Every structure is written in structure tokens, then in C-alpha cells.
Amino acid sequence: xxxxxxxxxxxxxxxxxxxxxxxxxxxxxxxxxxxxxxxxxxxxxxxxxxxxxxxxxxxxxxxxxxxxxxxxxxxxxxxxxxxxxxxxxxxxxxxxxxxxxxxxxxxxxxxxxxxxxxxxxxxxxxxxxxxxxxxxxxxxxxxxxxxxxxxxxxxxxxxxxxxxxxxxxxxxxxxx
Length: 176
Hints:
Layout: H1 3-12, H2 18-32, E1 36-39, E2 53-55, E3 60-63, H3 69-83, H4 92-109, H5 116-135, H6 144-154, H7 156-168
Parallel strand pairs: 1-3
Antiparallel strand pairs: 2-3
């Protein structure tokens, strides 16, 4: 850890220690029914997490160990897919939304604050899953209530409103 990172950490105050986070990770895996966890380090050189995988029928996940709050959130998200027994019967954006909600609740049940950047990443995950569904013409066809909740939570509805507002004002003369 360099000097700048150390100063930032000191400014934030005390953080959860690694053992506490690992104990919470173990509890979340047990709660979700995960029986196999392949620990992966999905970090790119820039430090961003790129993926985690869940295999609900096998009760298996491939995710980080959970040593940091952000890694713990990713682990909880993948555990959510297992706990909710996700398969391909539901649209992807609904599965992702449900897993995000499960992960948020699991961390809160275990006394861990959900990192703001994890919430933002989760919202983008659902937002882009909705975008993909819209492009395929499948958004809102099944699981309509959950699709509506996912659209509201992820900011999709706001995005659509902004697009419509831009289109509505396109006839106005441009000021010079």
C-alpha cells in the first residue's frame, strides 16, 4: 500500500478486518447453499473486477475470496444466484436484479455496509442487462413486475425519460 492509499484509509477510519470479512463470506455461502467455491482473482491490471460465475444447479460459484468489501459483495451476488436457484427460465435482467437485491440484503443481514461503488456497479449491471433485452425485443415480456422494479432501481426509466425529453426538444430552434 503506497503512502497516498494509506492516507485515504486513515481518513476513512477503521475498516473491517480480513478475518471478519472471511467469516461473513463463509456465513453467506452457507446461507445460500453453496457447496463449492473456486476462489478466483478476477482483477485486471487497473484493479477493476471483471466477473464472477455461478452454477446454481451445482451449487457452485467462481468468485473472489471475500477479503475486501467489494470482493465480498461480488461473492454475495454469485451466492444469490445459487440461493435463488436461477436458471434460464427468467430473463437475464430479472435474474441479475434478484441477485443484486439478495446480495445487498445478505451483506446487511451480516452487518456489512454495502460499498457505494458496488451498488453503482450493480445498478449498471442491471441497466446493461435491460439494454440488451430491449435490443432483443424481450424487455417486459415475462416477469413484468420484476422488470418494472429492475428498470426503476437501475435508472433505466430515468434514461428513457431523458431520451424522450431530448427528442421532444429537437424541434426547438437552437440558440446562437
